[in-house]
Each structure stands twice: as C-alpha cells, then as structure tokens.
Amino acid sequence: xxxxxxxxxxxxxxxxxxxxTATLVDAWHExxxxxxxxxxxxxxxxLRAGQHVDLRLTAADGYxxxxxxxASAPTDPAHPTHVQVTVQRVAGGEVSPYxxxxxxxxxxxxxxxxxxxxxxxxxxxxxxxxxxxxxxxxGVTPLVAMVRARRAAGDRTPFRVLYSVRxxxxxxxxxxxxxxxxxxxxxxVWFTRAAPPxxxxxxxxxxLRDVAHHGWPADLAxxxxxxxxxxxxxxxxxxxxxxxxxxxxxxxxxxxxxTD
Amino acid sequence: MAPxxxxxxxxxxxxxxxxxxxxxxxxxxxxxxxxxxxxxEVHDFPVLSAGPTPNVDTAHWxxxxxxxxxxxxxxxxxxxxxxxxxxxxxxxxxxTRWSKFGTxxxxxxxxxxxxxxxxxAQYALVGCYGGYTTNLPVADLLGGRAWIAHTYDGRPLDPLxxxxxxxxxxxxxxxxxxxxxxxxxxxxxxxxxxxxxYGYHDYGDPWREQRYQGD
Lengths: 260, 215
Prior knowledge:
The complex is a heterodimer.
Chain A: E1 20-31, E2 34-40, E3 52-58, E4 64-70, E5 82-88, H1 96-102, E6 108-115, E7 131-136, H2 140-152, E8 159-165, H3 174-177, E9 185-191, H4 208-214, E10 223-229, H5 230-242, E11 250-255
Parallel strand pairs in A: 7-8, 7-10, 8-9, 10-11
Antiparallel strand pairs in A: 1-2, 1-6, 2-5, 3-4, 3-6
Chain B: E1 40-41, E2 62-66, E3 72-76, H1 77-82, E4 86-93, E5 98-109, H2 110-113, E6 123-128, E7 133-137, E8 147-152, E9 155-156, E10 166-168, E11 181-187, H3 194-197
Parallel strand pairs in B: 1-5, 2-11
Antiparallel strand pairs in B: 2-3, 4-5, 5-8, 6-7, 6-11, 8-9, 8-10
C-alpha cells in the first residue's frame, strides 16, 4: 500500500473527496418494497453505524440524479470495501423505484461518503450510555446498523428499540431486532394499521405511556436516536422531552416529505 | 454471496468498468428553473434538523448580536417587528439535494439589523434555541442577501421550519439558514458550527456544489 492509499485522519470526520465507481455485488428484498444493496466500493474508507452515503445514478444521456441512503450495517472487517444500504421504494420517486426494482447485480453506480457524524453510534459512544432507538417505518435502517455494530463488536451497552411500522409485511430486520438473538437488545414492535394475531398489543401509534414503559428512564441519561418520517420524529422527540430527556441527548434524522 | 467477476457484469466495457446504472431514465429533465448541480426540484417543504423542535415563546424570545469586542446588542420580538420589514421571494437549496423555488418570506434584513453594530469581523457564528450553530462570512449576511425571517407564505413561521424566527441566507445551502435563531457572534477567526464540524462545507455555495469540506 502506498502512502496515498492510506485514509487521512481528516476523513474520519470529513467527507472524502470525489466519487468512486462501485459495483452492485449482491442484493435482496427485506420487504416487497425495500431492497438491500451490497456495493463494492474501491478504496472505501469504511463507515460507522448511522452514517449514510450519496449514490449518483447516470442515465444514458448523461443526466444524473443523486440521493442519500443510510447504511443498514456498519463496515464488516471481513469485507472492508462493501457498503450495505437499504432502499425503501417511494411511490412516484425518481430514484428509489429503479434501485428497488431494476438496478441489476453487476452494474455500476457512483458512491460518495461516508456522510454524517452526529447521528452515529459506535461502542463506547457517550461514555457507554444506554441507547434508545425509536424507529418509524424505513427509519429503522440506520438504527439496525447500530444494533449490528453493537453485536459485531460484542459490546454490552444496553439497547432498547421501539419500532413502529404499519403492518407485518412492512417490518424489516426483525431477526436482528427480536427473536432468538436477545443479548441485551430489548425490542418492541408496534403496528399502526394491522397487527399479527399474536401481537402483544393493539394496533396504534407509540404513545407517552409506551415510551415511558419501554424506553429508558431519563435519569439513566440514555442517548436517544429517533429516525422516521417527520411527523413520527416530531411526536417522538416531544414525548422524550416530556419524559425529562435532555434535548441534547436526542438525535434525530427525518425521512420523507414534511406532509407525511 | 457470489462475487461477480467483471465479465459477468451487464454492459461491462472491455476495461472492466461496470456500466453505470443501466436502464435508469430519471424524471423529465428540468426546464424553466435554474437548478444548481446535483439538485432536484420539490414542491413540498421537507423538514431536516438534528434534534427536537424547540418551542420558543415570542414573549421570551430575543436576538443577540455580539461583536469581536464583546459588545452586545439585543432585540426583543416587539423590537424586531418594529424594524423596517422586507418581503423576499427566494429559491431554497438544501444540501440533501432538494431545491424549492419561489418561496415567499417576510423579515428584517441583516443590513438593517447590523447597520449600527461597530465591527471589523470577517466571520459570524450563528447560534440557535436548541443549541444548533452554523458559521458563515459576515459579507454573506450583508448586501440584501440575508434576513431574520418570521413569516413564510403569509403566515407566522411554523416551529418545524424554524419559527418563531430563522436566519434566511438563500444563496447558501439551507443548513446555513439556521432555524430558531438566537444569536450572531461576530468573530475575527472562523469558527465552525454544528454540521461544519462533522465535515460539511464552511461556505456552502450550491452553485459551486460546496457540500462537504474540500469541495
């Protein structure tokens, strides 16, 4: 490796210059409308859970469109050049229908990043404070990356996850969030439109009582990550403030249009 | 997972470079609007901010300007509204790549607000209710290009979009137009704000696509 191949210290916080041409090496559907893409990116500096990448698509006439997508997994040391993002198809969208339905394995796409340093968790973050993850719909994507980062590191930071999703067929990453792999990650899934017959609670949005009972008490000073549509993020951050969490301990990432 | 060799890839050219996003067509190409590079047009008004939306009561609101010599100027809400008001129709460009054209605002020009403030500072750090900060040159606050905006599309500015008042500097990416503005600190040396410390550009000109440090 020559010196010029070594990532600069500055790249840990700054965004690496320029676009890299990546290849789609694997892809699978998480739901009927969400697809995970594994991109192989030459000289990729790696990313941390919660970060996102810019993807630039090119049409035959040279027209380009660029969008940001959150990674659904942190960099895997076994595949350091792989970037895994999960894309939710947005009806009428310009880019997501192509990435979910048409982008073929083996094809190229330009990647820039990683981007973002605030909505990030890694082992030891905030002095090992407990973590509360509040996910609305496809907003679960950067949050499951945090769960995966914790698990990959064998970290024991207490995690609680509250995941609100419309119906069972919309739920993603349940193997990582619930079920047999309970190792200090406590997860609850709320259904807002239709729940499975064995669901422990009725259909409905996450309310104050739910966050009070299933989140962390404010006096444990958890770091709270909230990701979802704007209305979800506004509602959840208000509940957290009412429950006594410090505004500076609440990190938010908003998806989608303001009218959602 | 099976690694894909270049020869298996669709549309691979002889050098082994994969074809970029084959079959991607995109929307009809924009016409009639001037889109900065890498942007697309939206008609709604997306919301982006890093934490909870602060609830700021105008009864307690104040705006503070501090100079490099630690002199301080303050305006209450009533004092802000008593200043000469501007109506501005401007285009917004967010670093997350949406642009919104022809937005209508009312507020106080920074030319008015800063007119009597003695300062030779070149840099400003803008502070907000909720703790957000952003930096920009003082020159970009002056010259009829920046406002303390309190009204959007004829109505009081919604807290989601920065109400009761936000900085509006539409010739820079929108993260510079700090929501819930509370203070402007004038500085001899540039001091990075919230997103700038995480790698976003110190200046943020959408026409030069200055998204990240080094662009």
